[in-house]
Design a protein that fits this description.
Length: about 425
Amino acid sequence: MMVDAKAVAAAAALSVAWFLAGCVTTPQAPDDVSMKTDLRKPTQPSINARVLSDASVLDYSIATSIDPAAERFTRLESRYTLKLSDAEEHLRIGDTVSTAGQWGSTVRYGGLQFGTRTTPREDVLYSERLAASGMAVLPTAADALFASISDGDSVLSRQSLSLSGAPKFNEQNTVSFVAKDSFGLSEALNVPLVAPTRLVDSGCSDFALGVGKVREDYAFTSNEYGPVFANTTVACSAPLGFTIEGHGEYLANQVAALGLGLARRLGTLGTASVAFASSETEIGSGWLARVGFEHRSSLLNFAVRTRVQSREFREVANVWVEDPIMRRNLASVGLNVGEGATIALAYAEQTTWERERADILSLNQKMSFGRGSILVTAGHSFADDVGSSFFLSYKRPFGTPARRATFDTQDLELIEVAVGRRQLSEGG
């Protein structure tokens, strides 16, 4: 009689999880059970079940379909997370997302993860709902921004993902996207164009270690995994107020990359950072250099980041890219000009080794108007086949004004009207 290897692996992982749970003091209160359903697309709803205790969480989520040609049930994620005593460390068994430092890739994988940093970097577009074909690499805001003006090869196109509408920037240096998968599911995502630099005050309290197998065809199939994957990110405090960070990632028989970063807060001026990395693949060894600076205050938010790399440099997210990035520059400025009035300006430039260049410039202005607000968005791409766009939107609460000084605006429905025009270089 043949034994299913996947079933044996799942049973072993569950046994380890229950064994570790037994090492933790039993909570006084009974476990909480929660269930969340998503019916925004009735033909393919998703369900998430969660069992919580004081020190552990068991998650299991599935997507269902009423299409007779598709699978009825598809497992999305299943994992067990254990918080170790009173410390900040977490141990996760099952499906999770890798971490990245000042550089590096973020991917879905199944295996073990241990550390205090168990969430993706802030500029990563993370969604539990959207399906991704091939290796489940999570794109960054910059990846999505350049993909929005190109029909060529990108992290999104390789996973059958697309963007709906033009990206929108705000005064907090964040950009909003509406991502869509091949099933027609869409989700609005709001992330910073330039991720804030993480600083460590003492010790090596910011770290993550992970090993397993990369997830493939996420939300298309239930149990498809690829090559062995490992990554680590460790950040430690150093003398003179510096934070030193090491990051490495490995994909079996494809790529190994390792790098070092340094960051320091420069008083009220802001935070400066620099990072260097090298990689090794079958095409040879390569290098990457990255420099950044950011300033954040109640009146002004400013961030700039530049990276250059050799033709041979690769990381897990772009190991098979034929025309790699040579240079990428990102800059964003957000300004509060008065009560209810803000201005946001963003610029992004990317050049590949085949000398394909893309430049994007965006200007957003928001102002209060009565009980609502007006948002003006203007964007321009210097690519020959893209052109410019202009949008004007008005948003206001729909309902009776609140009598109290404080209230929860989420209790009010919103009405939004938007008009705009997109001018293509070809005259469309």
